[in-house]
Each structure stands twice: as C-alpha cells, then as structure tokens.
Amino acid sequence: MKKVVILSNHHAYTYNFRREIIQRLIDEKFQVYVIQPYGEKVEKLKEMGCECIDLPLDRRGTNPITDAKLIRSYFKLLRKIRPNVVLSYTVKPNVYGGFVCRLLKIPHIPNITGLGTAVEKKSFMQKVMLIMHKVALKKSSCIMFQNEENKNLFEQENIRAVGYRLIPGSGVNTKHFSLLEYPIKKTIEFVFISRIMKEKGIDQYLEAAEYIRGKHPETKFHICGFCEDDYEDKLKELEKKGVIKYHGMVSDIREILKITHCTVHPTYYPEGMSNVLLESAASGRPIITTNRSGCREIVDNGINGYVIEQENSLDLIDKIEKFISLNDQEKLQMGLLGRKKVEEEFDRALVVDSYLKEIKLTIQ
Fold first, then answer.
1. Could you tell me which residue ranges the Glycosyltransferase subfamily 4-like N-terminal domain spans (predicted)?
2. Whole-structure pTM over 0.85, yes or no?
C-alpha cells in the first residue's frame, strides 16, 4: 500500500480544508498518516481511516531550540514511515518538512497557503525566510500556489522546485456550503468572520460599524472569531453600546451566514486564498473585501460584491453604503452570481483532482 504523510499545524485546519483530499486518497487505497498537534478534530480524522501522530508545533514562535526539536521529530517520523510522498501546508511544515524530505530523498508537495507578514515586508527576516524556502523546497516535486502573487514572488526570488502548479486556494465544498435562502427583512446585517487581529482589518470594520450604525440604524454588524490581539475590551465596549454583536468562535459559520446579508473581509494579511470569502460566496452572500491577492480573485467588483483599498475605512464605509442602497433583488442577484463564480472556479473538487494528478505523477 502506498503511503502519504500530511504535515499540518492544526487539527481543525486539516479536517475542515483537507478532508476531501484525505478521503480521496483513502478511496484510492493510500495509507494516510497525519502529523500535527492533537485536537478534537483528530478523532474525526481517525474515523475516516487516517493514522494520526501527535506532534506539538508552535505556529508563530521563533525559538530556535523548539524549531530544532520539530525538525528532529519530522526526521525521525519520516525516516520510520518512509512515505511515497509528503504533503505539507503552512510555513513551518513546508520549510522544516521540506528540509527533512530533501535529506531523506522523499518526494514532497508543499502548499503555499500564505507567507505571512515576515515575508511580505522587506526586512532581514524576509531575507532569512526566503533563503529558508529556497533551500527547503529546491527538490520539492511540485509547489502548489494559491495565488499568482506568491507564485511570482518565488519566481522573482529564484525559489525553484521540480514543478509549480496554481490551484484555486483550498477550494470550497459546494455541497457543505450550499446556496442559502437570502434573508429578506428590514434590517441589513453584515458579518466579519476571522481571527480578531489588526492585519485582518478589524479596526476598519469597527470604524465602519460605528459610522454606519449612527447613520443607518436599520443595520447590524456581527463579528465571529477568536481574539488574537488586545481587542476584547474594545469589542465588549462596542457591544454594550449596541454597535456590534460579538459571537466569539462559531463552530458552524453557516448559521451566521443564514441571518446576514453580506460578508465584510477588510484584511491586509498575506493570505493564500481567503476561505471566509469562498464559503460566504458559495452560500450566496455578497462580499466586500480588499484589493489584494487571495481576496480580489474571488470578487468581481460590482458584480458579486465590492473591492476596497486596504486600510481605508472611508472606502469601506462608501462600499457598505452602496450595498445598503441596493434593493432586495439586487442584493440577492449579487449573491447568486457569487455562488456561480465559486461553482465554476473554486470548487474543492478542482483542488482534489489537481493533487491526485500531481501525486500520481510524482510516485509513478
């Protein structure tokens, strides 16, 4: 039986965005190992037929000793399993897994899910990270890119692998995120779904919410996500004033999408392809997002939503007011066109097919 190892940094990320790939591999009689930190979704992966290996990983930490231990653990596990191919996602599994795969001569397919602020901004750290990617991924069988900007950066920096492939992000399961009935009611409700952090545009969303609520009392502004920065007190204060409704972490965002009319994602964080936007558009919700790679690909400006300048609260307010001015039928039509775009360009089945083709080419 052929063996595939998946290196990931979070159990929910793996289950929510990779389970279709995993299921297809299992159906094709591959033995699938998942190496990641333990969490509740690990049990669901086990039920699918995966062999799961618990390996703690500090996603954001830069402690060289901790990272050296991670590399050592990858080395021991991959040398023991001897997989036919390794799939990896996010920066540390890509880079450290890539180092080990190169040493052990194991075929490796990394997915560039976003490079983070350390790589986007010119700095000493950017140079270090680019060199690490260049060394780690040089012998990779194929690098999967989620957007053209990341692909172009690798080409400019001469970060080469055996092959490149551009895929539509993680794609979206259009059966799970089916077309939802569009809410027709007097109150117009917006939602921000993301980690609550500065780079995701939370400040712009809150500024817009305060202004719009003052001018358009028939609106509501929801926020869903985990606070990663010091925003808890501010959210509580604005909720007390009636500006926003903060839901915290939501296990199934479809329940929020059912009651909202538009998803607002004013991020300026370096993303691969925004899953929030894909899921919202698949559900038939218009979207407002920034003109940056990983977001602009999902919205046709004025057709299924609006594009705004990043870190520009006034532009966001302008586009929200444009949306408010639309009649019910125009809002509904925006959502339907977003659903059509996702079905044609971003269905997860397209991503799964790309992976299977590349895996079979790699291990034939």
1. 5-147
2. yes
